[in-house]
């Protein structure tokens, strides 16, 4: 603008036909006639117009966006296309036995023998360890002694009750004899008293003696009945105590048998974490046995997907150029270090050749396939968060920033919701070196 101003001033001072120069002192000025549109004036005018047009273009039409020249051979350019979107994730799983039996010490003790080492196959009932516990043996002997004492007490009580019953029977028999004797005397005296052969006093005394014996017999019968009932109660109590004591003895005997650790099932004894002479506490884990009749896969999944994972979800497992169908049978909801675990089993049998501890990728299906606009996965997402991308023009000479909206994601594609059209070409490699440039000028 300053240049334009100076040109106009020059034209005003020197190109104006009515401008009069001062003549030298003492002389008269003479008017010089000049052409208004001289070649010089035309050139100046055209230059001013061109300069003004350039300024206006820069202000209104020129591209002022920040640019960066980039070698296109170092970029990954992907095409947006319509296709089927499969919502799945790839998780890493580890092959484990279908069943794992933990060997825990039922009783404590110190190890006297270790008959099987870890990594060996065992059959059900095979002896793995022998333990020693003197306190358990002492308790067993005390329980046996108590049971024997109770047996003797029960036998003695029964014997005593038998003897007492004989004594009671004898007493009752003596009463019956005396009653019969006094009854006979009473009957004869009654006849004599009616005939007035004896006095009333003598008859009355005979009658009282007889009735007394009859009452004594009644009391004796009641007493014997009570003693018999009491004896039965004592015997039942002793029998109950003896039964409980014998159960206690059996329990102690089983406890002693648990000092011999046996394999509960057939399988692979994967580990035995004790040595001879070491002390084992009750409930302590001493190893595990793997059931080799089947396998499962345990996989860890990012906690981001915990609300979408449930039992019955389908998965695919590639092994030996074959695809095997799997499904989730158990979800462990506890989150550790941002991940949770699931167990998957094979739907049509375990693949041959699979081994315990083998690590393998699994394709876990999260939804049904559907039509969508697809953008290949790339490093751009970590720089933009999926909010914008660089879209390459048709000539392949430049790439411009464009805002977009992405939806779901699988390991191969993003679902495009807004901002892109089919056949658009997008730079999907990392944008880490581009800064905040709005336009990339691509060079080969």
UniProtKB/TrEMBL annotation:
Transmembrane regions listed in the UniProt entry: 42-62
Record's keyword annotation contains rRNA processing: no
GO cellular component, one term: cell envelope
Entry coiled-coil feature ranges: 228-262
Organism of provenance: Dyadobacter jejuensis
Protein name as catalogued: HlyD family secretion protein
SUPFAM superfamilies: HlyD-like secretion proteins
InterPro entries: MdtA-like_C, UPF0194_transport
Keywords: Coiled coil, Membrane, Transmembrane, Transmembrane helix
Localization in the cell: Cell envelope
Domain of life: Bacteria
Keyword Aminoacyl-tRNA synthetase: no
All residue ranges annotated as the Multidrug resistance protein MdtA-like C-terminal permuted SH3 domain in the record: 372-429
